[in-house]
Amino acid sequence: MEYKNILVEKEGSLAVVTINREKALNALNADIISELFAAWSELEDDKEIRAVILTGAGEKAFVAGADINELNKLDSIGGLEFANRGQSLFWKIENSELVTIAAVNGFALGGGCELAMACDIRLAADTAKMGQPEVNLGIIPGYGGTQRLTRLVGEGTAKLLIFTGDMVDGSEALRIGLVDRVYPAADLIEEAKKLAGKILSKGPAAITSAKRCVNMASNSTLDSGLKFEVTEFGAICATEDSKEGTAAFLEKRKPDFGGK
Ligand code: DAK
């Protein structure tokens, strides 16, 4: 499919998706949400692709939030549709079998911070600025910010960021657990590709199963999460990759995972 507002580049098993609306700091409008939805479906259907790096065009912004021009025009029904479409996209990304790495290359505000939080792993440039400034606009986060930020950084820090609308830079985002690693801006994409390459070298079924299990930790009690892990472990033991990985260790060679 042809996209107008995003770029989708494929390199082997990795896709790099770039939100490409630099003049508005990559703010998420309805077209971008629709294109991201379509792109994710396309990438999920492409059996070659197993990981995605999500980033923003230019040096200034990852995504500076939902498009405030569109927000300004929403009535109650429009707001509900807006919420449903955006939240189902973020849900799709979070629960996709694709491993997703957000490369936060600048402003990640409001819906932009929420989009990064829906990804599995967040790498940030030292120049990144992240936050949930919705209260400045008289609204609250609506793409999962109150829930995912609280799970990532804890209730006190989430309230601090959401109530003040303050931004944090890359190193502060790392300190509070909002991102997982920080790099000089010029190295960010290369580091994201290196990380993706490392993950792609592991057993594919093991990675998707591990993702399901870790996601379950945020959505269940410890007891049911542990039961889920047991079931997933049983299923993994039936894969050829689990036999190959363990045999390779015992034979002192590198595993050759076939993805089965
Ligand atoms: N929307 C639309 N345009 C934006 C934008 C945004 N979020 N952010 C920046 N732009 C546009 C600016 O209007 C400007 O356009 P022109 O004037 O050149 O036409 C251009 O990008 C460059 O921005 P600036 O000139 O402002 O650049 P600066 O370097 O001076 O400032 C900034 C950068 C990021 C600090 C500033 O642009 C800024 O404060 N932007 C707004 C950031 C923000 O408040 N983001 C959160 C948006 S609210 C919901 C779901 C989701 C949401 C809400 C509800 N439900 C499900 C109900 C999400 C809400 C949000 O994300």
SSE map:
Blueprint: E1 6-11, E2 14-19, H1 30-45, E3 51-56, E4 61-63, H2 68-72, H3 76-95, E5 99-104, E6 107-109, H4 111-118, E7 121-125, E8 129-131, H5 145-153, H6 155-164, E9 167-169, H7 170-176, E10 181-183, H8 188-200, H9 204-219, H10 222-237, H11 240-250
Parallel strand pairs: 2-3, 3-5, 4-6, 5-7, 6-8, 7-10
Antiparallel strand pairs: 1-2, 8-9
The structure holds 4-(N,N-dimethylamino)cinnamoyl-COA.
Describe this structure in words.
The protein has 260 residues and is α/β, with parallel strands linked by helices. The chain folds into 2 domains: 6-200, 2-enoyl-CoA Hydratase, Chain A, domain 1; 204-250, Lyase 2-enoyl-coa Hydratase, Chain  A, domain 2, CATH 1.10.12. Helices cover 50% and strands 17% of the residues. It is built from 11 helices and 10 strands. The chain has helices at residues 30-45, 68-72, 76-95, 111-118, 145-153, 155-164, 170-176, 188-200, 204-219, 222-237, 240-250, and strands at residues 6-11, 14-19, 51-56, 61-63, 99-104, 107-109, 121-125, 129-131, 167-169, 181-183. Helix 1 (30-45) packs parallel to helix 3 (76-95), helix 4 (111-118) packs across helix 5 (145-153) and helix 9 packs antiparallel against helix 10 (222-237). It is globular and about 60 Å long. The two termini are 29 Å apart. The protein binds 4-(N,N-dimethylamino)cinnamoyl-COA.
